Amino acid sequence: MLESVVASSATPMQMWVVLALVAGSLVLYGLERISLELTSIALIATLLLFFDFFPLLDADGENLMGPATVMSGFANPALLTVLSLLVVGQGMVLTGGVSYIAGLITEHGGKNASIAIFVGLFVVMVLSAFLNNTPVVVIFIPIIQALAERIERSPSALMIPLSYAAILGGMTTLIGSSTNLLVSSSLIELGMPGLEFFEFTTIGSVLALTGFVYVLLIAPRLLPALASMRSKLANPDSSGKQFIAQITVGPAANMIGTKPVAGFFKNLPNITVQMIVRREHAELPPFEDDMEIQAGDVLVVAATRKALTEALQKDPGLLHSDAAAVGADGDEAPQKSTQLLAEVMLPPGSRLIGFNLEQIGFRYQYKCLVLGIQRRSRMIRSQMTEIRLEAGDVLLVQGRSEDVEALRTIRDVVLLEWSTRTLPRPFHARRAAAIFLGVIALAATGVVPIMVSSFIGAGLMIASGALNLRQASRAIDRKIVLLVAAALALGNALQLTGGAEFVADQLLAATRGAPAPVILSLFFLIVAGFTNVLSNNACAVLFTPIGIGMAQQLGVEPHVFAIAVVMAANCSFASPVGYQTNLLVMGPGHYRFIDFLKAGTPLIIILWIAFSLFAPWYYDIPF
Predict the structure, then answer these.
(1) pLDDT in tens, 29-63
(2) What Rg, from alpha-carbon coordinates, does the chain have?
(3) Where would I find the RCK C-terminal domain in this sequence (predicted)?
């Protein structure tokens, strides 16, 4: 076999270097001290250099890990399929196809919001079996928040269940998650048949429904009942939790001319001034007693929401130069205009990602002022104008009611906590839905491969006018492109150097004498653990060849271990960095890392037990 020839031609040094790169990538992807994109680029560059100096030669003297092999991930059919499906899903989102379904739930939920929440989460799970779950979660965040308010329940009890429902739905079909497609692609690269569209739907549905019962009945009880940023700011009885805000002293502020007394300003009771920026010069505490506040000073303060609200009410001129909404002609809006506080979240694909507020010109572009930035439930202790925005960031904004309302139509931000009004149905929604259903039908019936149907569907979305080229390009996530390409390159190296076989041998040696179902169960648990500290896509590519090696040595059908990778790699429940939808709900739910650990760990154990009991019986694996 090719694998044995390759393994014998590889040197131990090459294998150990690749294993070290696997371990290093696990650490770097898990810690995220540097961006996933930069880590992926560095990994690809390292593989290119290493196998150029130490080539892995076959019998004909050809380098099996040459540049063409290392870079082949960028042209991988699974990756192209994922990107095409992202474009198709974006067409469904932008034309209102998904929003229309969400609108029906809120419109016909009646007074029983509890039933509407159940239906909403179930619909999210079903939609995620066929659509990229990231836009589905983005659409349903404000819907679930509104329904939670109707039953006087904290949205924080339902944001994590929303993300979990989307992840569970992705376990059931080949296109439910990019992870599933990558496992299938890895099988094909190993010379085996890929996974069929509904091949693991039965076992995936068993796990999804089992998990859904937990998500609906138990997970909300384990989560904190936290109020949103907006409700806390408006509630005079809010908690003493502080956040960082940046305010500019307007020319009509009563605070002009005041001096600090023992380091505090009497005009700002219960507020700590951490920095005063004056003409690009920063003054830090302790402040001199003769220092006077001047118009145009920028104050970086730490305060409770109650203290900040009271300060702005007592001195409206304090924020005059920045807080006033800007009219369409660029003039300051009258102060008599009704001002609202609201939260907006940056979804993946937003054009604002990577830029700071000053570069964006947020105030002039959207007619609203950003009062605070919250990232992963923590306020950032830095000048807001210097902070580069990231996906999942929540901005606390102030503006006129009409300007805040206009944020609903902006695709680069998601307005949170909106009312449950009927959502619009744009003109192209029907043709987008027809294209989407056609892609699913062609792939499910096997008329054409999923790669062909998804690519044609993406082209039809653009040709039909449901999307333009700019919108289609924004649907493509560069993190997925680079991470998948790097993981596939590392997976090839792991297989060709014999590293995958070595790891499989060690795992089998550690479980020597154990029945195949026990080994399968432990393998599932190992992959499920790694997927919470590593990208699920990377886990899928790295562990598939290891699982196939174990299956071959046990004499078990390789697809069984491949499906175990699919199920386990989707168990990204115990960490906010394990899956993108977890990161999306972290801001709106104001969660800490421990909240995901508390709610996600029991779910992983439940799914592990369900898989361990059902899979051996379903696939007839003897003990």
Answers:
(1) 666 677 778 888 999 999 999 999 999 887 778 88
(2) 27
(3) 232-317, 329-413
* pLDDT of 373 over the 90 cut: no
Copy the structure tokens of residue 406: 């206009």
What value does the mean pLDDT take over residues 580-584?
A: 74
**Residue 238: predicted pLDDT:** 45
Helix (H, G, I), strand (E, B) or coil at 65: coil
List the structure tokens of 361.
């010109």
Alpha-carbon distance of 352 to 329, in angstroms, equals: 23
For residue 248, how many other CB atoms are within 10 A of its CB?
Answer: 18
Residue type present at position 77: P
Q: What span, in angstroms and rounded, lies between the C-alpha atoms of 47 and 38?
A: 14
User: 103-153 pLDDT, tens per residue?
Assistant: 666 566 555 667 878 888 998 999 899 877 776 776 677 677 767 766 667
Among residues 470, 409, 461, which one has the least CA distance to residue 92?
A: 461
- Go through 327-341 and write b for each residue having 16 or more CB atoms within 10 A of its CB, e for each that does not: eeeeeebeeeeebbb
Tokens of 281: 């010069």
From CA 592, how far away is CA 615, in angstroms rounded? 34
Give every CB contact of residue 542 below 8 A, 6+ residues apart in sequence. Answer: 22, 487, 490, 491, 494
Distance CA 229, CA 239 (A): 11
CA distance linking residue 586 with residue 155, whole number of Å:
11
Closest listed residue to residue 355, CA positions, set 394, 376, 384: 384
Using one digit for the tens of pLDDT, what is the confidence trace for 1-14? Answer: 334 334 446 788 98
Tokens linked to 493: 């190296």
pLDDT of residue 262: 67
CA 622 from centroid of its chain's CA atoms: 39
CA 44 to chain CA mean position, Å: 23
Tokens of 466: 């449901």
CA dist., res. 357 & res. 248, Å (int)? 15
**Residue-range domains of the chain with CATH:** 1-75+478-497 (no CATH), 79-226+423-477 (no CATH), 242-322+336-415 (3.30.70.1450)
Which DSSP string corresponds to 227-292? PPHHHHHH-TT--S-EEEEEEE--TT-TTTT---BTTB-TTSTTEEEEEEEETTEEE-SSPPTT--
